[in-house]
Amino acid sequence: MRGSWRVGRIAGIEVGIHYTWLLALFIFTWLLGQGFSTTYPGWYTYFYWIAGFLATFTLFLSVLIHELAHSLVARSRGLAVSSITLFILGGVSNLAQEPENPGVEFYMAIVGPLTSLALGFIFWVIWYFITKTWVLPVFSVNIPANKQSLGLAITGFLAYTNIALAIFNLLPGFPLDGGRVFRSILWRATGNLYRATNIASVIGRVFGWGFIALGVVLAIFTQFGFLNGLWFVFLGWFLNSAADNSSLEVTLKEHLSGVPVEQIMEKDIESVRPDTTIDYLVQTIFVQKRKRAVPVAEGDNLVGVVTISDIKALPQERWTLTPVLQVMHREPIHTVKPEDDLNTAMKLMAQYDLNQIPVLNQGKLVGMLTRADVINYLQLSQELHIKGKHKTNSPGAAAKS
Q1: What is the pLDDT of residue 182?
Q2: Of the N and C termini of the chain, which has fewer Cβ atoms inside 10 Å?
Q3: Maximum CA pair distance of the chain?
Q4: Distance CA 328, CA 219 (A)
Q5: CA pair distance 209, 216, nearest whole angstrom
Q6: Whether 239 contacts 204, CB under 8 Å
Q7: Which residues contact 2 (CB under 8 A, 6 or more apart)?
Q8: Taking residues 227-256, what's their average pLDDT?
Q9: pLDDT tens per residue, range 386-396
């Protein structure tokens, strides 16, 4: 997720925070502090801020554990997990690929809500333990009115919130965990991922619009409900957007899977040597041939890729003296093979934010594939209703059939 910072690794999985997480940390700290001041009157003012911060921070740790459960189950089923990112609405596990069968998706999805339920139960046990035994004096803050404690406030909130999150995530609207569970069941029943995703996405949109409507009602017709209403509107918008994106992703996969890269790649490509000057590259290839990226090769061996972005920062007066070698992309160079399908190529482009990708056959450069190539193919395939995993017959073969 763009706009994120890496903060560490857990079980080999990179953990990052999105900048919106900092906003959520502040908002929830303030809201919870205000809520605790009403529920637990008589504390010192700074205790409300401490309670709000600790409750918010621990809640996001709970979300991290929830996402880690998803990731560990996914990895145990053979799926690569690139990272976990915490953001304003919770967290997301970033998978390098989607599950290949409904069973994997079911177990990967259901473990999240079950983990949140388990965390809610653990916090409830701690809350109950504090209320009955008072053996945690470090958390105890005697209050004349009701003698509640900081630990009581935080654990009670975390118990309730984790259980509420588990129930919310079990709603059968895609892409919530419950929606993924529902999709896996439909996928198993119909044998069609595309149809199952469309049905689950429609239900996800229904829940999304429902949350938006609820948010508007709360904001307009309830006292002090503006922030809560705004939160539900934002949540509904997120669900609608995520459901649309998920449906689009599966549609793309259906059209691109099984279509070999060599079918649409540019085969008649021009490469440059590492000692080619930037001035020659710009005038001869970028300007005259309207290319935005060129492979750099020594013979048939690819050694790099140079793009327009690579030379933007270089002053024009240095173009005649600077070789491509100094500005080109080197290792790692992400490539595909002619027999790879377009879905594989697009995953690489999306994962590494590439606009083009070299095609190698037994280590030799044989072509270039660009986003524009894939988009043009998608437009044509959708217009002509062409699906992936099809074979192209030659005229001779068609005549014989």
Answers
A1: 93
A2: C
A3: 94
A4: 53
A5: 11
A6: yes
A7: none
A8: 80
A9: 665 544 443 33
How confident is the model over 345-358, as a mean pLDDT? 80
Q: Please give the residue range of the domain that contains residue 168.
A: 4-256
Give the residue from 236, 256, 276 where a domain finishes. Answer: 256
Residue 262 CA, chain-centre distance (Å), reads 29
* pTM confidence score: 0.70
pLDDT of residue 145: 39
Instruction: Region of 224 please: left (phi>0), alpha (psi -120 to 50) or beta.
Output: left
Domain finish residue from 208, 240, 256: 256
pLDDT band at 1 (very low <50, low <70, confident <90, very high): low
CA geometry: angle 113, 117, 122, nearest 5 deg? 145
* Sheet order of strands, 90-95 included: 4-10, 13-18, 81-87, 90-95
Least confident of 39-48, 128-137, 138-147, 338-347: 138-147
Residues in the chain: 401
